């Protein structure tokens, strides 16, 4: 250690340390490095932060797929600000988030960690997340890490670490798009390549990605960090080199500045390369320069130590829990509400609450939440000896969980004192035992209504059904959960299904037979309160799907922004067995109230690049009797161009709250450069032609249509990303 170390891996996220203990260890490490190493350079400590800072005592927000369902980029920035405050309080200055992966195949286990299927939505949410972490100045913020660069969520067969088959134009227009915006709009400070390969080239050795596109084309000035053990993959998994030295050389020359989580390859193997002259020292110097620059920008040299006493004060405070609660409320998507079964009255005689996720605090949270990950580390230590973590042999719930509200607890807190709440687990998430069915059926028969809470268990290890490495071959409810629902349905008691899950599930029978369905995703520490609010009408759901829900796994991929020749089968249109349409489309979500869309207005019927932009406005009115939220969605379509274009492209959105009878005007300011695309010569251009404008409540529920024309000549343009939106009262 006399030469120091550049980074420290997850002091809080891979241990049982309290915030105060984490600070103490961080300060001891920095003190040693500054006082006892040759150059006295402080280390950069990194942590995970997918659904909150992944550490003991930190706030557990809804998992990312749920956050995406809010369609509220402003609340995403607030969430990231809390993550920043908690991480800074313990000395961590780099977050390994956000995921900017576009996912089209929900068989992929990490679907839950993403913002969904649409490049604009992923971009908009990701940019806000980065701004909340980094702030205007890194001295006040922490380094955000955009991952996984690039195409990781489009893997072959939905399998983790599998190749991604992406043509060049699609790579640039869809999968690179959120990353490019993150670099240019949010000044992203760190990038992490994916584990996978593109066209035979693993991302961690791709000079095209990490040098030509990222640094030369986009002007990225931050650091590139490896995914965990990904440099070793070049040797042990992808087999593109014959030894450790070869892997280190490939990664460093491609542009990977930092090896995570250790220095297995950038330690002795790299040193041997330098001493033998097998690698140009300029590659080392450039990587060192970039890492030092980040450390200077963070202020680590001036202020490497943290106040130990203040750490606990900003962990899972009432204000932070209220934000987690607000995000959980906004993330809930009402999929079905036949005959207005919901909301329920609070004074029903009896309610049966049934299902493996009804009273499980463990299953309320997503992969890369602290309790899930500690559980995984304990298991991996016993089996694979991957992590030598400072953990006891076992941990009690009180050691690893912040207070978490289950759906059962939320319901019990809502109903009147005269309402009997009956509970039965019914079955487990994954195994096939039906031993609990009898009890569940009996209480359903006694109740006025049955709330059945089913779905996933998220995590890395066996027994989990969603999360990293937990890829699936089908999208049905795991185990015998659907059979449990059928058994409850057959009692004749009205049934409400609540989904606590990490990926879209094929629930065609449930969608046909069950009168009310709530998609709550993995709603975090306050999820039970939020779900109960929706069930009893204390909160009117306004979440929208960030990813399409297929009828069957055989439809995949079923994303909305397909090309004119996609999304259908030749001649007959549908499959032999079923429609090509999803069960529930991208952008879909119901409310307990109704909204009208009127007065679509486009500022210019003919626009050119000299005009720079076009304003598109629409009036939205709450025509129902309850206050509610609507997500107003702007889509466009261009045709008769030199290359094919998607049938719809999201170009803007705004979540608004309207009282009963209230009306507001939403104005989208769309830059002409946002209508660019890559032509046959792979140049980013705008071409003249008609632009169809569609405003709606989902990608399928288009309420108003109009068009404008781009006039003039085809021109090469610079990209613009974000559509400005403002709201005016009527």
TrEMBL record:
Domain of life of the source: Bacteria
UniProt entry keywords in alphabetical sequence: Glycosidase, Hydrolase
Fibronectin type III-like domain mapped to chain residues: 630-699
Transmembrane segments: none
InterPro entries: Cellulose_Degrad_GH3, Fn3-like, GH, Glyco_hydro_3_AS, Glyco_hydro_3_C, Glyco_hydro_3_C_sf, Glyco_hydro_3_N, Glyco_hydro_3_N_sf
Record's keyword annotation contains Hydrolase: yes
BP GO annotations: glucan catabolic process
SUPFAM superfamilies: (Trans)glycosidases (SSF51445), Beta-D-glucan exohydrolase, C-terminal domain (SSF52279)
Entry keyword annotation includes Hydrolase: yes
MF annotations from Gene Ontology: beta-glucosidase activity
Family membership: Belongs to the glycosyl hydrolase 3 family.
Name by which UniProt lists this protein: Beta-xylo-glucosidase
Organism: Thermoanaerobacter brockii (Thermoanaerobium brockii)
Gene field: xglS
């Amino acid at each position: 250690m006399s030469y120091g170390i550049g980074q420290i891996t997850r002091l809080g996220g891979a241990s049982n340390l309290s915030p105060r203990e984490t600070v103490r260890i961080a300060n001891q490490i920095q003190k040693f490095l500054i006082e006892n190493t040759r150059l006295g350079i402080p280390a950069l400590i990194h942590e995970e932060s997918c659904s909150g800072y992944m550490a003991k005592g930190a706030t557990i927000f809804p998992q990312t797929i749920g956050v995406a369902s809010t369609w509220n980029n402003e609340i995403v920035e607030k969430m990231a600000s809390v993550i920043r405050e908690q991480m800074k309080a313990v000395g961590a200055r780099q977050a390994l988030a956000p995921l900017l992966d576009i996912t089209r195949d929900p068989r992929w286990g990490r679907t839950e960690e993403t913002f969904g299927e649409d490049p604009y939505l992923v971009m908009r949410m990701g940019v806000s997340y980065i701004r909340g972490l980094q702030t205007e100045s890194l001295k006040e913020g922490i380094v955000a890490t955009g991952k996984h660069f690039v195409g990781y969520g489009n893997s072959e067969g939905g399998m983790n670490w599998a190749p991604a088959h992406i043509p060049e134009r699609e790579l640039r227009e869809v999968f690179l798009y959120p990353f490019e915006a993150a670099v240019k709009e949010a000044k992203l400070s760190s990038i992490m390549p994916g584990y996978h390969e593109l066209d035979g080239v693993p991302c961690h050795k791709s000079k095209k990605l990490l040098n030509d596109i990222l640094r030369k084309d986009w002007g990225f000035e931050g650091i590139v960090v490896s995914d965990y053990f990904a440099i070793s993959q070049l040797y042990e998994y992808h087999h593109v080199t014959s030894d450790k030295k070869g892997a280190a050389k490939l990664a460093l020359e491609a542009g990977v500045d930092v090896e995570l989580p250790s220095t297995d390859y950038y330690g002795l193997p790299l040193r041997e390369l330098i001493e033998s002259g097998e690698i140009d020292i300029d590659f080392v110097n450039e990587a060192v320069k970039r890492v030092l620059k980040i450390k200077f920008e963070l202020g680590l040299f001036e202020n490497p130590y943290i106040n130990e006493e203040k750490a606990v004060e900003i962990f899972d405070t009432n204000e932070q829990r209220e934000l987690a609660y607000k995000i959980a409320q906004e993330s809930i998507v009402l999929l079905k509400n036949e005959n207005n079964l919901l909301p329920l009255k609070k004074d029903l005689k009896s309610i049966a609450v049934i299902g493996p996720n009804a009273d499980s605090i463990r299953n309320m949270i997503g992969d890369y939440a602290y309790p899930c990950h500690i559980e995984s580390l304990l298991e991996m230590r016993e089996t694979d000896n991957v992590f030598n973590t400072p953990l006891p042999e076992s941990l009690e719930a009180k050691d690893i969980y912040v207070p978490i509200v289950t759906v059962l607890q939320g319901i019990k807190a809502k109903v009147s004192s005269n309402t009997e709440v009956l509970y039965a687990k019914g079955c487990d998430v994954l195994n096939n035992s039906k031993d609990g069915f009898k009890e569940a059926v009996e209480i359903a028969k006694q109740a006025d209504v049955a709330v059945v809470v089913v779905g996933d268990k998220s995590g890395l290890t066996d027994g989990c059904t969603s999360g990293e490495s937990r890829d699936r071959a089908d999208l049905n409810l795991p185990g015998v959960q659907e059979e449990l629902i059928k058994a409850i349905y057959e009692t004749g008691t009205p049934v409400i299904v609540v989904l606590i899950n990490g990926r879209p599930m094929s629930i065609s029978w449930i969608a046909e037979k069950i009168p009310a369905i709530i998609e709550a995703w993995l709603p975090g520490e306050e999820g039970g309160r939020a779900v109960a609010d929706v069930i009893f009408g204390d909160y009117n759901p306004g979440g929208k799907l960030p990813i399409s829900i297929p009828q069957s796994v055989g439809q995949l991929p079923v994303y909305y922004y397909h090309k004119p020749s996609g999304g259908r089968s030749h001649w007959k249109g549908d499959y032999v067995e079923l429609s090509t349409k999803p069960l529930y489309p991208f952008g879909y979500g119901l409310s307990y109230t109704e909204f009208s869309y009127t007065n679509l207005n486009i500022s210019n019927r003919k626009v050119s690049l000299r005009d720079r932009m076009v304003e598109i406005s629409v009036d939205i009115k709450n025509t129902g009797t309850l206050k509610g939220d609507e997500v107003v969605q702007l889509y466009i379509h261009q045709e008769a161009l030199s290359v094919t274009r998607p049938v719809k492209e999201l170009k803007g959105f705004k979540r608004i709250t309207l009282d009963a009878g209230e009306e507001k005007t939403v104005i989208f300011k769309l830059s002409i450069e946002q209508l660019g695309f890559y032509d046959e010569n792979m140049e980013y251009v705008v071409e003249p032609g008609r632009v169809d404008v569609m405003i709606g409540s989902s990608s399928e529920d288009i309420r108003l249509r109009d068009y404008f024309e781009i006039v003039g000549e085809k021109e090469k343009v610079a990209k613009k990303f974000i559509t400005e939106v403002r709201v005016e009262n009527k």
